[in-house]
Amino acid sequence: MIVGCPKEIKAQEHRVGLVPSSVREYVNHGHKVIMQTGAGAGINFTDQDYLEAGAEIRGSAQEIFAEADMIVKVKEPQAVECAMLREGQILFTYLHLAADPEQARGLMKSGCVAIAYETVTGRNGKGLPLLAPMSEVAGRLGTIVGSYYLQKHMGGTGRLICGVPGVMPANVLVIGGGVAGFNAARIAVGMGANVTILEKDHDRIRFLDDYFRGEATVVYSSIDFIEKNAPQMDMIIGAVLIPGASAPKLVTREMLKKMAPGTVIVDIAIDQGGCFETSKPTTHSDPVYVIDDVVHYCVANMPGAVPLSSALALNHAVLPYGLKLADKGWKEALAADPDLRNGLNICFGEIAYESVAKALGLPFNPDPVALAV
C-alpha cells in the first residue's frame, strides 16, 4: 500500500501524522511511504530524516493525495484537503465530526473511507486508545494554561494556584473524570490547588477516590452541584466526552453571571462543541476571550502547543492500527477488528457512526461497507 502523510495546515498545528520511526515500520512491512516536504519541520524532523527512514519526499499535498492509498494525518482535513480526497481512499486521522457539519459534507462528497482516531475503541469496546494520549496532554496543559490565565494581568482573579502560607490556594473544578479530567486533576493537585472532580460513572468515581486519597474531592456530577458551586471556583476545566457525539452544555450563560470576575474556564471538550454554553473554538495565536468577566480558553488543538511530545505519543498509539489497515486493506482490517471498525465514521458517502449521524441530523448507515465495490 502507498501511505501518504501531508503537512498539517490547520492554524498553529505543528504535529505530523508520521514521525520517522513510524515510517520505518511501514517500510519494514513492505509499504511505500510518501511524505510532503517539510511535514515534520515543526518538530525538527528534516526531509533527510524521513529519507533515511525509507520514505520518499513529494513537493506538495496535491501529489500526496493523488498518489496515496491511505492518508495519515493528525487534525481533521480542511476544506481544501477534503476536495483532494477521492472515492475509496482511506483517511486515518482525528475528525470530530459532531461539531463540524461542513467537514462531514466534504468527506461524504469525496466518497473516501474516513476512520477517526477518536472513536476507535480499546479491547472489547472499552476506552479510546487513540484519543487517550492527546487527552492526557490536553488535560495536563489545561491546568497549566489555566493557572497562567489566573494571573491578574492576563484577566484572571489574581490568585496563585498553589497559594502561599496563610493564603488559600485556588479552587479548581474539573468536570469529567475521564482521561483528560483525571490528568487535569493530577496536575492541579500537584500544583497545590483545592481540587474537586465531578464524575457520573460510579466505577470511575471509586477509582478516582482511591487514586487521590483525599487530595481531591470526588463528587457525583449534577447540574445542581455545578450551579451551586461554580461561583466559588477560580478555575473550571471542562473535560466531558461522549464518543462521537456533541459535548453536553453543563455550564450555562446564567451561571457565568454568578462567577467572580476573572474566573478562568478551560474547555478541553471544544473539539466536540464544548461543554460550556459560551464556548467557541479559539487558536493558539488568539487563545482567550472574555464573556461576563469570565476568561474562556477554548483552543481546539491544545496538544499542538507541545507538538514534539504530542506527535510522538500519538504515533506510538496509532501505529499498530495504521499497520493493520495497510497490511490487510481497510475492509479486511475492519472485519477482523471490531474495535477498529468503531473508528469508521464515513464510508462511500454514508455516515457509519450513529452518534455522528444524530449530532448532524443526517441518516445513519450501519453497514456502509456494502457500498464499496
Structure description:
- The protein is an alpha/beta fold and 373 residues long.
- The chain folds into two domains: 185 residues, NAD(P)-binding Rossmann-like Domain (Rossmann fold, 3-Layer(aba) Sandwich); 168 residues, NAD(P)-binding Rossmann-like Domain (Rossmann fold, 3-Layer(aba) Sandwich).
- Helix content is 35%, strand content 16%.
- It is built from 14 helices and 15 strands.
- An eight-stranded mixed beta sheet has the order 3-2-1-4-5-6-14-15, with helices on both faces.
- β14 and β15 form a beta hairpin.
The biggest beta sheet is recorded as: 8 strands, mixed
CATH topology of the largest domain: Rossmann fold
Helix content: 25-40%
Compute the number of strand runs.
15
Uncertain stretches: none
Strand order of the largest sheet: 3-2-1-4-5-6-14-15
Mean pLDDT: 95
* Highest CATH level, the class of the largest domain: Alpha Beta
The tally of domains stands at: 2
State the shape.
Answer: globular
Q: How many H/I helical runs?
A: 14
Question: What is the element layout, followed by pairings?
Answer:
Elements: E1 2-5, H1 20-28, E2 32-36, H2 47-53, E3 56-58, H3 61-67, E4 70-72, H4 79-82, E5 90-93, H5 101-110, E6 113-116, H6 132-149, E7 171-175, H7 179-190, E8 194-199, H8 202-212, E9 216-220, H9 223-229, E10 235-238, H10 253-256, E11 264-267, E12 288-291, E13 294-297, H11 307-328, H12 330-336, H13 338-341, E14 344-347, E15 350-351, H14 354-360
Parallel strand pairs: 1-2, 1-4, 2-3, 4-5, 5-6, 7-8, 7-10, 8-9, 10-11, 11-13
Antiparallel strand pairs: 6-14, 12-13, 14-15
Helix pairs in contact: 1-2, 6-7, 11-12
